[in-house]
Design a protein that fits this description.
Elements: H1 5-22, H2 34-44, H3 49-62, H4 66-71, H5 74-81, H6 88-103, H7 112-116, H8 123-134, H9 143-153, H10 162-172, H11 181-194, H12 214-217, E1 234-244, E2 249-253, E3 264-265, E4 268-270, H13 275-284, E5 289-294, E6 298-301, E7 305-316, E8 333-336, H14 352-355
Parallel strand pairs: 1-7
Antiparallel strand pairs: 1-4, 2-3, 2-8, 5-7, 6-7
Helix pairs in contact: 1-11, 2-3, 2-8, 8-11, 9-11
Length: 359
């Protein structure tokens, strides 16, 4: 898409100058390694920058290259990701890593289209990797970028519409400089993160586009962007059973597909069940409940649903090892010393509120 060079210079050059003088020091900005850039981009999806820093370093120390990621055992991989949530992100990363090892001799493909063909890499991530690691002219449009462009252009289109995202990306191509495409895309993200912020009043006085931004001129920064509301989250009631025999805690391994696939959890029932029913469920495992008491309540919010959880602490007779071979309604479970939760078994954030109870 062609555009007037003066208009391009009025957008591109002030943005890059602002970025050069104001960018934050972030570890993934100190490399051109496509693997490290890829890891950072996947981690940063749905996650704050400050939360990602520590995970990023730990992940790369454990899995320093694509081959290591491809070879990792799933429990180890999920444990490294524990606390970041959205675990399919890292599962898809491993699937993509295996593809890269098999089809590209362990080297990330260097063009947008091939990157887009890999599992878990969407349009934004493909554009980010292609531009930052390989200096390809490709847009990287996420929610931050949609917000600042809607304000810059005074565009009241619904940014939740995928067609609007594609239109913005196409229009943006005209402004991406051939010599600094990666810096341009990172500058857009930075501007949306620290100046044209998602929550609260934008810091227009610090913006390199303050003289040309249509939303600022028309005093519509509080009205843009336009974004249709998401469907309200459903609420599900759950009861968590914290079953201990004094030296072990019982964990259930979730199914291989669906929410929190393959992760470990404390055994859980749908609904808020009575103490008597919790005792029955424990007995159905072949265990002998000694004491049961109500414990912590917690709420965990997923993208499309909320779990409102009650819990019971159930003490059982010291016969748990004999129950290992028994078939249970949960099908797969393990008995571990509580300390192993911090070393080996990936426990989703949904259950962190109960972690302190088991010692």
């Amino acid at each position: 898409m062609k555009t007037d060079q003066g208009a391009a210079d009025g957008i591109t050059q002030p943005l890059l100058l602002w970025y050069d003088n104001n960018k934050r020091s972030l570890p993934w900005r100190e490399t051109k390694d496509p693997y490290r850039i890829w890891v950072s981009e996947i981690m940063l999806q749905q996650t704050r920058v400050e939360a990602v820093r520590g995970y990023y370093q730990r992940f790369l120390e454990a899995l320093p290259d694509i081959g290591a990621l491809a070879r990792a055992e799933e429990p180890y991989l999920l444990k490294l990701w524990e606390g970041l949530g959205y675990y399919n992100r890292v599962r898809n990363m491993q699937k993509a890593a295996i593809r890269v090892m098999e089809e590209y001799e362990g080297r990330m493909p260097d063009c947008y289209e091939l990157l887009l063909s890999l599992p878990g890499i969407g349009e934004y991530t493909a554009g980010a990797i292609a531009s930052i690691a390989f200096d390809r002219v490709a847009p990287a449009v996420d929610g931050n970028v949609l917000r600042i462009l809607a304000r810059l252009w005074g565009d009241a289109s619904d940014i939740a519409d995928p067609g609007v995202k594609k239109a913005f990306a196409k229009r943006l191509l005209a402004y991406i400089p051939q010599d600094r495409p990666g810096d341009f895309n990172q500058a857009l993200i930075e501007l949306g993160a620290v100046v044209c912020v998602p929550n609260g009043k934008p810091k227009c006085g610090e913006c390199p586009w303050r003289e040309i931004c249509i939303a600022k001129k028309e005093e519509r920064t509080d009205l843009l962007p336009v974004k249709s509301k998401k469907k309200e989250r459903s609420i599900e009631k759950k009861t968590v059973l914290l079953i201990l025999d004094g030296s072990h805690v019982l964990l259930h391994k979730r199914p291989k597909s669906g929410l929190l696939a393959g992760m470990y959890e404390f055994p859980m029932a749908d609904g808020w069940i009575s103490a008597a029913r919790a005792k029955e469920m424990t007995a159905e495992l072949g265990l002998s409940p000694l004491r049961i008491r109500k414990s912590t309540e917690a709420v965990h919010i997923f993208t499309h649903k909320e779990w409102h959880m009650h819990s019971y602490l159930v003490t059982v007779a010291d016969t748990m090892p004999e129950a290992k071979a028994k078939k249970t309604p949960w099908q797969e479970y393990v008995l571990i010393p509580p300390g192993e939760l911090d070393k080996t078994y990936p426990l989703p954030s949904a259950f962190k509120a109960f972690r302190h109870i088991i010692g």
